[in-house]
Design a protein that fits this description.
By secondary structure, this protein is an all-alpha fold. About 65% of the residues lie in helices and about 0% in strands. Helix 1 crosses helix 2. The chain is globular.
């Protein structure tokens, strides 16, 4: 269970995210799509009752980590992404990445890609992303300069495209 200061901080952040979600389509449409009344959405927006973002986070916090991670991975997949669990140390992250990549390679080695194979590949990508985050964090902690790739500049309007 979190303390009051953390709950307040969580409520503030989730209210802001919920407000952005509702404003992106408008209260009426959001309420209709959620199967709720505009009054219920406005009560959530005012803080009179917890919003769905806060409820989701609290539900994840109440569950065992593996169950919460699984639910979060499902939500991320439904949104077109994937969940990245950051391992505590570089060694643990590297071991997890190697294990997940080996499982993904074994899954797709038969030349057919099933839904289970896709899940294995997503888990491997997630483990590699987690490893990258740990490496970058350790480099930053050590005072190393982390250089991120820069996107190529886009040509300005009217620029000669023949170059």
């Amino acid at each position: 269970m979190t303390d009051t200061a953390e709950r307040d901080d969580l409520a503030v952040h989730t209210e802001a995210w919920f407000r952005r979600m509702v404003e992106s389509v408008g209260v009426k449409r959001y309420a209709a799509d959620m199967g709720l009344s505009t009054r219920q959405i406005n009560r959530m927006l005012s803080g009179a009752q917890p919003n769905p973002v806060e409820r989701l986070i609290r539900a994840l916090q109440c569950a065992e980590p593996t169950a919460g991670d699984g639910a979060l991975a499902f939500v991320c997949a439904e949104a077109g992404g994937f969940f990245v669990r950051e391992e505590g140390s570089l060694d643990a992250s590297a071991a997890a990445a190697v294990r997940e990549c080996a499982e993904a390679i074994a899954a797709i080695s038969d030349g057919e890609v099933t839904e289970v194979d896709r899940r294995e590949v997503r888990e491997a990508i997630s483990a590699l992303a987690g490893l990258l985050r740990v490496v970058e964090r350790e480099q930053a902690d050590a005072g190393a300069v982390v250089v991120r790739p820069v996107a190529p500049p886009t040509p300005s309007p009217g620029a000669d495209s023949r170059r």
